[in-house]
Write a structure and sequence with these properties.
Length: 326
């Protein structure tokens, strides 16, 4: 199903330049593969060479790229092309996909003591346990498990295989064995949260694990017990957050990064991919702690050198003291 280019602009705003109001758009596509019936976008000026070569019917660009885009053909000028592209995908989904009407799939298991809002959608093979609460407009895709007494707010999207409210990892050592600490808290998830496939959010030991409004979690993320994630923070795939860590609002955590337990990250902290956060970060900013990839022989030499840094430091301090005394 197609949409007229002009209808997209009528719905989303922006300035259509170079004509084409009645051009039918059959899909939204990347610049390098877009064809004559496609809408594309340019969010980074570094790719303007691809813009010049693109066969797209129309390209969404920033005001600074208007003239370059017009030299190629029709364009939509928007202050933030990437956000405009995101809104365009939402519009496309609304117009071309069947609307979810809410309800519980016949294969789902919902405890009689759970509360599911009538407008929520519970997909195939989901399990919603006793005392759980699912808010208005929330969608659980297939095979989602919501543990007892866990709460999910309104308009959330929970993708396939997510487990919310499994026991946190709590054990006390005794004579070489482990004594289980019962996890008596739950999980509280705010409104407008999206959780990627096969992500796990553990219930708290004594207090709840909390995911605040607007948080976005990618696939295969582990959130430990009693973690708190602040509003509108986002984490990429394979992130691990250990128990009792607190992540502030508007933070980002790159793929494969680890946040150790009981640490605090201030608001607007941004962690690069593959970084291990070993201390609390009290100031906003970008933090990176990964060791760059190299060929193995050179990497081994650099790693060996790193092991000597402390002794080199002590030798330099001794030399400095000797120079001062001379």
């Amino acid at each position: 199903m197609s949409l007229l280019l002009g209808h997209i602009v009528d719905a989303l705003g922006g300035s259509l330049e170079g004509g084409g109001y009645d051009t039918p758009i059959s899909r939204i596509a990347p610049l390098e593969v877009a064809g004559s019936g496609d809408l594309s976008f340019l969010s980074n000026p570094r790719y303007q060479q691809q813009l010049a070569a693109s066969r797209a019917a129309c390209v969404i660009v920033a005001p600074a790229m208007r003239d370059v885009a017009l030299a190629r053909g029709a364009c939509i000028v928007a202050d933030n092309p990437y956000v405009y592209f995101a809104r365009a995908t939402q519009l496309w989904r609304q117009r071309n996909a069947p609307a979810l009407s809410g309800g519980v799939h016949a294969t789902a298991v919902v405890d009689t003591m759970a509360q599911v809002h009538p407008s929520a959608t519970i997909g195939p093979l989901c399990v919603v346990e006793r005392g759980a609460h699912i808010g208005a407009g929330t969608v659980l895709k297939s095979r989602v498990t919501v543990g007892e007494d866990c709460r999910i707010g309104a308009r959330c999207i929970v993708h396939s295989g997510v487990v919310i409210g499994a026991d946190g990892f709590g054990f006390a050592p005794e004579n070489g064995q482990w004594v289980k600490i019962e996890q008596l808290g739950a999980v509280r998830i705010g409104d407008d949260v999206e959780i990627g496939a096969n992500t796990c959010i553990d219930r708290g030991a004594l207090q709840d694990t909390v995911i605040e409004d607007g948080v976005k979690l990618d696939n295969l993320i582990q959130i430990g017990h009693n973690v708190r994630v602040g509003k509108h923070s986002a984490m990429a795939g394979c992130v691990g957050v250990a128990g009792s860590a607190t992540i502030g609002a508007h933070c980002t955590v790159g793929g494969g990064a680890i946040v150790l337990g009981h640490l605090e990250l201030a608001d607007n902290v941004h962690i690069s991919a593959a970084t291990v956060v070993t201390r609390s970060l009290t100031k906003p900013g970008q933090y990176t702690g990964m060791f760059p990839i190299d060929d193995n022989a050179r990497w081994e030499k650099n790693a060996a050198t790193l092991k000597q840094l402390h002794s080199l430091r002590e030798r330099i301090k001794a030399l400095e003291q000797a120079l001062k005394a001379a």
